[in-house]
């Protein structure tokens, strides 16, 4: 018998309401979710459906208004700022649409910023090798293309060996071919290191490479589909 898969993220009744003066903006409305160890999840949904809000709460960047959000047995909903900082540092790698590299530091130094504070990091050189940029280590971000800069951002995110890689529109600023290279890197990290990956995208074709596809609507998970025939990024087209 197959062992039951283990959920690493569990959310129940997760609610987030932003207050803008007198106006309340509901971003998550009693959302339920399970994400399992090692899987590749693609999160789709229209603009404003709550994708980034959800990712930020799972990543310990924001607190919910009510409900439960667990990372294994850590309650993220009740964690204080120090606990969330430790959680992010030890367990989470983030990749955003814009790369947020420090322009005055070389590629290697950008990655080393993270490896110096992580408990069990890989060497910056190894992280850069994994994203195919070992030969650009001593270059500055401005000397790299957008796709290369995003691969540095991924190297920085994985160098601390996070349990989970949370990606918010990682290909949003990239052209077709470059976007595919970046997706290949994320897929490889997921497969080779077993890092659970959650990727937000507006591009429904990217769902083809997921183990599971979650669609958000109106602050909830509207549907979850298994993807029995996973494609490689090279096989995707849009
Ligand atoms: N800091 C904030 N203050 C007030 N309202 C916010 C804030 N962040 C998000 N919202 C609102 O919460 C709702 C969900 O936003 P969120 O960014 O999570 O959606 P999204 O699905 O990621 O959208 P997009 O695809 O456009 O990035 C939206 O109505 C948004 O306007």
TrEMBL record:
SUPFAM superfamilies: P-loop containing nucleoside triphosphate hydrolases. InterPro entries: AAA+_ATPase, ABC_transporter-like_ATP-bd, ABC_transporter-like_CS, MacB-like_ATP-bd, P-loop_NTPase. GO terms for cellular component: membrane protein complex. Residues 9-236 form the ABC transporter domain. One of its GO terms (molecular function) is ATP hydrolysis activity. GO terms for biological process: response to antibiotic. It comes from the Bacteria. Coiled coil: none annotated. Gene3D superfamilies: P-loop containing nucleotide triphosphate hydrolases. CDD domains: ABC_MJ0796_LolCDE_FtsE. Belongs to the ABC transporter superfamily. Macrolide exporter (TC 3.A.1.122) family. This is ATP-binding protein.
């Amino acid at each position: 018998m197959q062992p039951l898969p283990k959920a690493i993220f569990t959310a129940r009744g997760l609610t987030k309401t932003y207050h803008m003066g007198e106006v309340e903006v509901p971003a998550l409305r009693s959302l339920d979710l399970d994400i399992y160890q090692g899987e590749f999840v693609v999160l789709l949904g229209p603009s404003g459906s709550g994708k980034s809000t959800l990712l930020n709460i799972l990543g310990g960047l924001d607190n919910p208004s009510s409900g439960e959000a667990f990372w294994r047995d850590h309650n993220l909903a009740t964690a204080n700022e120090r606990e969330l900082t430790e959680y992010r540092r030890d367990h989470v790698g983030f990749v955003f649409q814009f790369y947020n590299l420090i322009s005055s530091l070389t590629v290697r130094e950008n990655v080393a910023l993270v490896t110096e504070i992580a408990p069990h990091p890989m060497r910056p050189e190894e992280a850069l090798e994994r994203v195919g940029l070992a030969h650009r280590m001593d270059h500055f971000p401005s000397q790299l293309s957008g796709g290369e800069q995003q691969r540095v951002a991924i190297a920085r995110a994985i160098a601390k060996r996070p349990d989970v890689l949370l990606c918010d529109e990682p290909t949003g600023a990239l052209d077709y071919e470059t976007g595919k290279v970046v997706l290949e890197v994320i897929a490889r990290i997921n497969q080779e290191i077993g890092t659970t990956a959650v990727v937000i995208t507006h591009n429904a074709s990217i769902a083809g490479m997921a183990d599971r596809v979650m669609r958000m609507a109106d602050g909830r998970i509207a549907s979850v589909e298994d993807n029995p025939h996973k494609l490689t990024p090279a096989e995707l087209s849009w």
